[in-house]
Amino acid sequence: MRRISKFFKTLAAVSVCATLISVVSCKSPPVEESNIHPLSLLDKDSSIYVSVPAKNYVDLTSKILSSKAEGISEQDAKKIVERIDVLYAGLSTPKDRARLQISAKGSFPGIAQKAVLTKKNGFEKQKYEFKDTKYPSIDYYSMDGNSFQLSFPQESLICAAQNLYPVLEKFTREVQLSDFTPFNWIGQDNDEILVYITKPGQYLQNLIGSSINVNSRAIYGNLRQMIGQPKDSGKYELDFAIELSESKSMNFIMNSITLSLRMMGASAYQTNQNTIMVKGIPVSEKQIMDLFNRQNYKTKHFVIKDE
């Protein structure tokens, strides 16, 4: 865990260095960059997709980041978050619950990277090589004892994952944002946190506090700071849609969740024959962070059948 902590502390140092460079250096000519949407670099087999407008949720994003590396302070994490505009993440797969892919818009000048991501700081610089592309190779950084790899394919793009090859391979092919339902949802220009869950599993129980057994195809919604609460309250509010696989389940699920929702001060209504809209679910900071901190263990989703 100490090496994981050092990994993110060093990334924080890159952020500080980048800020100092932007303040004291002369303005240099802009470098031509590929027009690639960060979201297009994520794989399409994740169970959960999230987009976070990081600068609107600095404290929350910093806590999520620090929770991924024991020992990193929230202060160090904030130095990273302050250099990020929008963070996109794909979390977990049915075969690998701990998988995490991150691709984010940001600003990390190359000179700052070279100053901090050094062997002295414990980083090993390596290359992924690609054939028949505009980019024959892309550098990435790793640290002994830490499963995460870090890369800056261009100065406005930050990527991290346990295995960055499939992410960077998409970058070399300049893959454009495709018509993929989860991407369409979380890729919206929005001031709130957007979530799309492709494999609902136990998440519905976690969100509504009611154990039901129904075939749900997806859950998608938006999360925001609870109105009237201070920014450091850790209290959030979630609106989300439950997309059912079978319309015949509609009456059953509505009856099953109505009482639980009323007790929470939330409500639900049917929008079409297959969709239920849930409004005003109170969500704690811990529930949000738990989405990012799934561990690999042998179990089955026990609440809702996944397709």
Description:
This protein has 307 residues and is an alpha+beta fold. 30% of the residues lie in helices and 28% in strands. The protein has helices spanning 2-24, 58-67, 74-81, 110-116, 165-172, 181-186, 203-208, 250-264, 285-292, and strands spanning 48-52, 84-91, 100-106, 123-129, 137-143, 149-154, 157-161, 193-197, 216-225, 235-244, 267-272, 275-284. The longest helix has 23 residues, at 2-24.
How do the helices and strands line up, and which of them pair or pack?
Elements: H1 2-24, E1 48-52, H2 58-67, H3 74-81, E2 84-91, E3 100-106, H4 110-116, E4 123-129, E5 137-143, E6 149-154, E7 157-161, H5 165-172, H6 181-186, E8 193-197, H7 203-208, E9 216-225, E10 235-244, H8 250-264, E11 267-272, E12 275-284, H9 285-292
Antiparallel strand pairs: 1-2, 1-8, 2-3, 3-7, 4-5, 5-6, 6-7, 8-9, 9-10, 10-12, 11-12
Helix pairs in contact: 1-3, 1-4, 2-3, 2-9
Low-pLDDT ranges: 1-5, 16-31, 297-307
Q: What is the residue-averaged pLDDT?
A: 78
Kindly name the structural category: alpha+beta
* Fraction of residues in helix: 25-40%
Give a brief outline of the structure.
This protein has 307 residues and is an alpha+beta fold. Helices cover 30% and strands 28% of the residues.
Spell out the key features of this protein.
disordered N terminus; 12-stranded antiparallel beta sheet; alpha+beta; globular; 307 residues; 30% helix
